[in-house]
Amino acid sequence: MPRRSSFRPNSSRRLFLQGSAAAIAGVALSNCRGGVSDVQSGSQAADSSSPTSSGSGTLNIYTWADYTDDELIQQFTDATGIEVSVDVYDSNETMLAKLQAGGGDTYSVIYPSDYMVTQMVELGLLTKLDQSQLSGLETMQEKWKNPVYDENNTHSVPFVWGTTGLIYNSAALSEAPEDWDYLWNNKDKLSRRITLLEDVRETLGAVLKSLGYSYNSTDPAELEAAYQKLLELKPALASFKSFGWQDELLGGDVLVSMVYSVEGVPVSQEDTDFKYVIPSSGSSVWTDTMVIPAAAPNAEAAYQWINFNLQPEVAASMAERLYLASPNEAVLDLLPEAILSDPSLFPSEELLARCEGIAPLGEVSALYDEYWTKVTSA
Amino acid sequence: MSIQTLQKKVSWQGLFALLVYGFMYLPILVLGVYSFNKSRYGAIWEGFSLRWYRRLFQDERLFAALGDSLKIALVAVSVSAVLGTLMAIGLSKYRFRGRSLYLGISYLPLIVPDIAIAVSTLVFLASVAIPLSIWTAIAAHMVFCLAYIAVVVSSRLSGLDPNLEEAALDLGATPTQALVKILLPQLMPAIISGCLLAFVLSLDDLLISSFTTGGGANPLPIEIFSRIRTGVKPDMNALSVLLILSSGLLAAIAEYLRCKGSNQAIKG
Amino acid sequence: MSRSAVTDSRPQSQQVKGSGSLLRWRLTRLIGPSVLLGPAGLWLLLLLVVPVLLILRISLVPGLRPEQAITNYGLDNYLQILQPTYLRVLLRSVTFASGTTALCLVVGFPVAYWLALIAPKRWRNLLLVVFILPLWTSSLLRTYAWITLLRTSGVINLVLSSLGLPEQNLMNTTGAVLVGMTYSFLPYMVLILYASLEKLDLRLLEAAADLGASPNVAFWKVTVPQTLPGIAAGGLLVFVTSLGDFVVPTLLGGPSSMTISRLIYNQFLGVSRNWGFGSALSIVLISAVSIAIALLLKYGDRNPDGFS
């Protein structure tokens, strides 16, 4: 028998089709109930098993990079005897996608941002919090008692708030940036020396704001204008980066970066050459929260974790270590004046009034994504 | 030695190869040097320091991630070693209807880009509502591990002398005996190198792990990727140096085993 | 290898012993293949074939998001790929991949040639191992190393400026992606070319020389045709791997380096969560790669390394 390659397209294609028809029939049956990603059924499975696991075992937390540290976890374990394991994500969308894909079933506490809380509530991904099990919410500042993204905090507990702004190397720049337009006005000088957030909502939002529109515009014409304006800036960009710009900025590769305040302020505190500024025409102001997913195992421990984080002493010590701006009045009372008077952490009410929260967009988000892909593909 | 013979000995390919070896090792050398740099940022040398190594060894998270990666790789590779070897033997032994389809499918993990495998596995797991965990990652890794092992074993199989096994069968050995006593020892070097290949690929995999891992498991590539993205930290230099050294050791062992194995195969 | 002659010869000798043995023989004949091929086949079916068919199905649902139920089918996702924006992404991916393949061939062939034919014999194995040793380390860390080299405040610019030359923007460029990819995939190319060159029948070269062919002619008329299967296999492997690469364009590519794999990634773990479009892109990627391989198998080497 001669040995030759056994790829015979015609016969194998027919076989392939026959086989695939059978396989499709089998699989199709399994997912014709709900959405393609049947998170609900996953959550039922987890719910039924949760009584056995509650109160003991490891507490799995899914959060942003800078919201916990070893000290906090050690304190919590010492106080409750519960071991904590932390996973981090770098964007709300990553977290949501992971959760929807069934990768979030072991997480008991998650830290979504404001608009994401709304979206997750709509998707039925969050537990309605049992207020009787929470303590320390009374001292929340007025603004966060009944936030727009989650009425009466029924599903979420405000954890930290902050802004989006620019951080720049003041030693290398003769003129300090004050507003978004600075980037466009100096794009030749700053060629390949700028990074913007790799975050479609923040970056397109900022460009919209620089045009005088809303951060959350849903008007296609305004979005088109923002897209065109962003394209103008693109040759001057080193990259889109939400995290990891620190090294480039401090190393001198980059002179201005658009950053989240939680990331930017610590850098400006460590080295006074680098200054964080909230653009004067306004920016985004966001709140990151603590929530318990609908599928969460070990809900008891989740409440313990949230309550622990709500303790003013714990939160104040975190605020000093990680430069987190707490929405909790009782925490602010414990903070030294030096932190409270820092305008990059606690900007003036007047400036805040010009900032907007990032709102859920529904169908328009596809348009944002399309422009984003165009920008990154151009 | 005269200049002429020296010139004869040093071909332009040799010089070029030397250059390319330099290209391959330059980045690693740079990482090595900078892992001892005191400075955190930039390329400027600010003095010798071991602080990054100290920090690395205190990094429990990194070691936990390494542990997860090793667990995934070890389990996936050991199961795949059995399945992949059986598959390769089966494919070389039998002609049957649908063999070319089977063959084509077994090639797929080698040629389909990771991102597509990752995405389809994710969609599959989501649609049958299997929550992601370290075990889903192992299951996904097994797909490409067994395919790679099977290819390596197959290429060895095609070079084997079929007479040995036939002789064993003719002398009254059962097919299982013939497999275990005759075929497997001959295939062992290939199985080992296939396993090593699969092991390395599994340890290095970012995309498939990203889409299929959950439940608190956090393989090393995901951890490294997120660290590079969340700030290039010099302790990554230190980590690279340690990884290079340990993989050098591993490669040396592997090569030693391979030589020993093929010598034995010849002797046996 | 062909064992069929042997297996086929068994029944006649056993048939003589009676129908019971025949039945047993038939069963054994089934047990063998199912033990050998069953487990792996099942695994591939469950975790490869079914998933790919699933995304094929999902790719036909316009703009499907993970929380949505499948209601209607259509080709919208595929039509969306034909928009200039996304065609540009495809084109860029192909450009990166073909550039990388060409570079790997040009750089890899002389190295493999030297390793297989010129280098001292007893060092060959060691030299090869040393060459592919970097493969044993995390590809992420190797790519990260290039950041250290290429960045504006990086080693290369440090050297340039100490020589009095102007700084260059090396990071976040197409060049950076090509260098990074070539660096990542060169060992594969060299490995495959080495295997191919090692098998080269040196007598053919001697014969060519005896017949008066210059080394140059002999190289193009003998060495290259003889190693063509290796070149094709290596080229295809590098092309396919770099076409689907995610790490290098993400870490070295900067703002204009959206590739098909990054685009797919963004559909599943990004802002749009458009599983339908992401699945369609994946199907296109899988098809492109499979067609390339099928063409290689059909018109390329009739007897490739590996199965059959």
- Radius of gyration of chain B (Å): 23 Å
CATH topology of one domain in chain B: MetI-like fold
Low-confidence spans of chain B: none
Order of helices and strands of chain A: HHEHEHEHEHEHHEHEHEEHHHHHH
Summing up helix and strand content along with how strands pair, one would put the structural category of chain A as alpha/beta
Q: Greatest contact pair? A: B-C, 101 and 91 residues
- Structural category of chain B is mainly alpha
| Overall pLDDT score of chain A | 82
Number of strands of chain B: 0
- CATH class of the largest domain in chain A reads Alpha Beta
Query: Which fold does the CATH topology of the largest domain in chain A refer to?
Result: D-Maltodextrin-Binding Protein, domain 2
Q: What is the count of structural domains of chain A? A: 2
- Any idea what the shape of chain B is? globular
| Major sheet description of chain A | 6 strands, mixed
Query: Roughly how much helix do the residues of chain A carry, as a percent range?
Result: 40-55%
What is the name of the CATH superfamily of one domain in chain B?
A: MetI-like
Number of helices of chain B: 12
Give the oligomeric state of the chains in this entry, treating copies of one chain as homo and distinct chains as hetero: heterotrimer
Low-confidence stretches of chain A: 1-34, 38-55
